[in-house]
Design goal:
Elements (H helix, E strand, L loop, with lengths): L3 E4 L2 E4 L6 E3 L4 E2 H19 L3 E6 L9 E3 L12 E4 L6 E5 L3 H9 L2 E5 L9 E11 L5 H17 L4 E5 L5 E11 H18 L4 E2 L11 E4 L9 E2 L15 E2 L1 H5 L11 H11 L17
Parallel strand pairs: 13-14
Antiparallel strand pairs: 1-2, 3-4, 5-6, 5-8, 5-9, 7-8, 9-15, 10-12, 10-14, 11-12, 11-16
Helix pairs in contact: 1-2, 1-6
Protein name: ATP-dependent DNA ligase
GO molecular function: ligase activity
Keywords: Ligase
Length: 293
Amino acid sequence: MTPITEVEGRRLALSNLEKVLYPATGFTKGEVLHYYATTADALLPHLRDRPLSFLRYPDGPDGQVFFAKNVPPGTPDWVTTAEVPRVEGPARMVLVQNLATLMWAANLVTEFHTPQWLIGDPGQADRLVFDLDPGSPATAVQCCEVALWLRDRLAEDGIEAFAKTSGSKGLHLLAAVRPTSSERTSEYAKELAVGAERAMPRLVVHRMTRSLRPGKVFVDWSQNAARKTTATPYTLRARPEPTVSAPVTWEEVEDCQSPGRLSFVAPDIAPRLQDYGDLLAPLLDPARAGPLP
């Protein structure tokens, strides 16, 4: 029998709570839902008003993994949705505006991915993002070196950067910017990625070409495009363990001497929130947004 619970006055059927989703650690679906419930205060502000793309893995990361943007079949009528313009035609997408919707979406077993713009102004970016992806044998250690260069370069333009783990092998850099077209933010991000490659040619590559990437950090600037999305802060990832895209301090980035130093799993996040609060809260403050040069 599927348990029924009530969240903010909404009735939710939460299924298969004992199902193991992360076999490497025995982490269950019930623990996934508990993680999102206890992390909601930090996570929800980063989801709110951003159309959600679902990367679903209902049988765990070793099962079927599929990406979806349209409103899933069976979505309750109380879930907020909005029509979003897309190249191939408009789509209706989910907005996670509250705890009830967060728990409904988490019950589908999904990574949360969102664009760099808000629903009220599609294609006008309010965030800048860099995805730093290491090509073996490079690791998160080299990503940290590149992140520090980008942080300092952004600061020269009056833009304050923040870091989080990708939840996989690399790092994400995020910055709040005054609303600017996604085309311009993409151009600017590419300029900085090219600049990083020129400054550190043995360490950085700005092109996606696989043959160029071994031993280097790929600075992926393309996720600033209006059609692209990035893993939302605090989302669980479809990896062998319940890793999290977790905000980190710049001191942690500076002190990173081994890849494992910047890898966090779900049970790590509550203590980090207690110690640090939401390290990415400044991204939500319009007064902290910098203008692109």
